[in-house]
Amino acid sequence: MARIMVVENDDRLRELLQRQLAKLGHEVFAVADVAPALSCGWTGELAIVHLGVPGGGWERLGIPVVGTSGEPRHPSVPPGVVDLLRKPYTLAELGEVIGRHTR
């Protein structure tokens, strides 16, 4: 399975997503913003980033980024993001996106 970073500033959603990905067999590194991931040198295959997280910075991760958003202000995929999941999304949709962007 894949090494996946979850960047979500809502603690409840971050923990839920971390548990669901772990159940699917993925190794998960979950943080509230991108800065800790950049400072610790984490490496992985994919990042799932809530586009509303303050500070941005996902383009500096050096791995494919799947954005998540429930906001209508993200009508298309922003630069540096390979795919966009609209909240709420299903576990099946999440799995499909992960499959498209990991080995």
From TrEMBL:
Transmembrane segments: none
Gene Ontology biological process: phosphorelay signal transduction system
Record's protein name: Response regulator
PROSITE patterns assigned: RESPONSE_REGULATORY (PS50110)
UniProt xrefs under InterPro entries: CheY-like_superfamily (IPR011006), Sig_transdc_resp-reg_receiver (IPR001789)
Residue span(s) of domain Response regulatory: 3-102
Domain of life the protein comes from: Bacteria
